[in-house]
Amino acid sequence: MLHIVNKSPSERNTLDSCLRMAKKGSTILLIEDGVYGATKGGVAENKLKAAMADIKVYALWPDLEARGMQDSVIDGIEQVDYNGFVDLVAADKNVQSWL
Amino acid sequence: MGFEINGKTYETDEEGYLVNLGEWDEAAAKYLAVEEKVELTENHWEVINFLREYYNDYQIAPAVRVLTKAIGKKLGAEKGNSKYLYELFPYGPAKQACKIAGLPKPTGCI
Amino acid sequence: MTESTGGIDMDEDSSGTIKKFAFVNRKAPYGTIYALESLEVVLISAAFDQDVSLVFADDGVYELKKGQATKSVGMKNFSPTYRALEGYDIEKIFVEKESLDARGLTADDLVVPVEVLTSDEIATLLDEQDVVLSF
Predict the structure, then answer these.
(1) Is residue C98 part of a domain?
(2) C2 contacts B109? CB cut-off 8 A
(3) pLDDT (tens digit, 9 = 90+) per residue, B14-49?
(4) Which residue spans within chain A are E strands per DSSP?
(5) C87–B contact, CB cutoff 8 A
(6) How far is C13 from chain A (nearest CA, A)?
(7) Is ipTM > 0.85 here?
(8) Which domains does chain B carry?
(9) Among A38, A96, B95, C85, which residue's Cβ finds the most Cβ atoms within 10 Å?
(10) How far is the C-alpha of C97 from the C-alpha of C95, rounded, in Å?
């Protein structure tokens, strides 16, 4: 399962819900304001790092760059472009968007 | 809407402002000036270039009083007043100078 | 503002009734339209020569983050416009310290010089306003 999160973790609890209900071995892609969750010093840093033992986390770099957050991404989070986004969607049998 | 010069087309909105800032060039400015019945002199170009620089720096077209103040700072007090700018652009620096410079209409101007 | 007044003779018209306005910005810049709308209202309000303060708190502090580059997402990067506010005589820009801390940011990460205030100080500032507009 690919989970897509597009809300800021300091504005909504979407990422929390996602982390609570995502199974081990699944994938999370952070896009739009969701990319704030991928940044060092942000409110989601510790939770996300803990989850990364079992879950692979990606962030969409055009959205990071738009927000000026490209230089503060948590180590271990892989950045993808729009083609990478498509590859992630194609790689999993289903997708859940946490709106 | 739009116009064409030497095979290059320029898209404009319903009020005649360029839609794409990047399409602007000297030829477009000269065309737009004719449309506005403004005869471009060096003094006009000074203001047009100033406006383009301002937009490049701040991503907005300045309000008239911000423009006059900034022009005064850069080009001297004798040019930093609305009388001077209205002499160059009788229908208003916002309406005419911004249009000729290829900028969108300034925020807050009706 | 209309072309004919140009804000030039506004002082006479408004006959000295200056009110304290605070614009409170609490949203990240691109996920919603709030941040851009707020900025446009601020620019328009500058024509009325009021006592304007801008407050950035919660995700609103992200509006001022340096290094925004929106070419890849095809949106307008309006962060440079905050640097134009000084020319509009809007110089009171306050940022909540707690919001910066929670996001691993400091005043050095922001595109304009700001005054960093604690939540308590922001509370006092907002209490002193005649009008508070929230975005």
Answers:
(1) yes
(2) yes
(3) 888 999 889 999 999 999 999 999 999 999 999 999
(4) 2-5, 27-30, 56-60, 78-80, 95-98
(5) yes
(6) 41
(7) yes
(8) 1-110 (1.10.10.370)
(9) A38
(10) 6
